[in-house]
């Protein structure tokens, strides 16, 4: 690894003086990596060191770095129409909404915002107001899962089920309830995965009944819990959740912020399960994170309930100044074209399978309790004891990540420190990763785990 030159040292000093980082403790000894450039799956820091970004930033650079055509799409749009509010309309937003509807294979209307958190906030407000519009005045509660993450703003954080992210900021918004996720790896001994998943789904219906079904507006979940440790449900779980929601008049909101845009091996994560959500939220891969943009897709008949002009305030009274910025929409459209033209959705599935096949032998490693995958989202659960499944020490998890980084590979770690789980290594490289990139990821992690650990 190259040592930092004078210029780099100055940048680190200024960073430490002026910049407040996302969810990372300040550390004089461990300064942040300062990225300078990136291409494909590789990022170069200001010292000239190259790293394979095995997390696509924050699970978001789906088409990889350095796509000139995305910059050009934004540039041309900025020259012709840089901004116009979506209280009215513009062509890039119309074209993107039409395209998203085709990708969703349904009949959806699109509300644009800038981030995943905002897309979820819009979904919560739409769900509550919709229930009022149809005369269900008591339906205001949301049911989410522990270990799920839905964003950093107070409503989205309320839906989040990770204590570590919440407990310093409580009390949060009222009306958000949580149930345990279908963590099949930790199911009771003797119970089948199917049985356990059905039981986990039943917890949602039980909660509705205990709360009074007429008070519940919606259920929110990711198709697969990603940031909470890659928890992949069995088909029966989502089938049953959908059935429960329909039976009780509760909307099903699916958060596709990470799973969307090919990451799961299908265009959207829920399409792997064949469920039809009422509301779908998305961000990250929508623009491959080149510009901020998010969307809340709402079933057409829900939208129709907002058209009744007999109530003066019956329309959706929510505004987002920057949401659906024309340049971000033009860029997103080009991004979707790249995903289609290069078959990156299918490629994500192929690469995910290749990585899990490469790592199958790691299940014999004393630290590896479970390997789970969903397209090109892979979680490797590290344990201190395979019999008890006691999570590996945080220092071990951090040590492995640091050793990968020293060998030029960035991977992630997810879970919930406060709840005693922060033991899942996560790997989610760009969908455009080359065969050589995948070999590098597979080989580096194997070498690290089979080395000193
Ligand atoms: N939903 C999920 C599943 C996420 O993973 C995230 C962010 O990581 C969000 C919502 C919030 O997105 P943002 O950080 O863009 O607000």
TrEMBL record:
<dbReference type="InterPro" id="IPR049704">
    <property type="entry name" value="Aminotrans_3_PPA_site"/>
</dbReference>
<dbReference type="Pfam" id="PF00202">
    <property type="entry name" value="Aminotran_3"/>
</dbReference>
<keyword id="KW-0808">Transferase</keyword>
<dbReference type="InterPro" id="IPR015422">
    <property type="entry name" value="PyrdxlP-dep_Trfase_small"/>
</dbReference>
<dbReference type="InterPro" id="IPR015421">
    <property type="entry name" value="PyrdxlP-dep_Trfase_major"/>
</dbReference>
<keyword id="KW-0663">Pyridoxal phosphate</keyword>
<comment type="similarity">
    <text>Belongs to the class-III pyridoxal-phosphate-dependent aminotransferase family.</text>
</comment>
<protein>
    <submittedName>
        <fullName>Aminotransferase</fullName>
    </submittedName>
</protein>
<dbReference type="InterPro" id="IPR005814">
    <property type="entry name" value="Aminotrans_3"/>
</dbReference>
<dbReference type="GO" id="GO:0008483">
    <property type="term" value="F:transaminase activity"/>
</dbReference>
<dbReference type="GO" id="GO:0030170">
    <property type="term" value="F:pyridoxal phosphate binding"/>
</dbReference>
<dbReference type="InterPro" id="IPR015424">
    <property type="entry name" value="PyrdxlP-dep_Trfase"/>
</dbReference>
<keyword id="KW-0032">Aminotransferase</keyword>
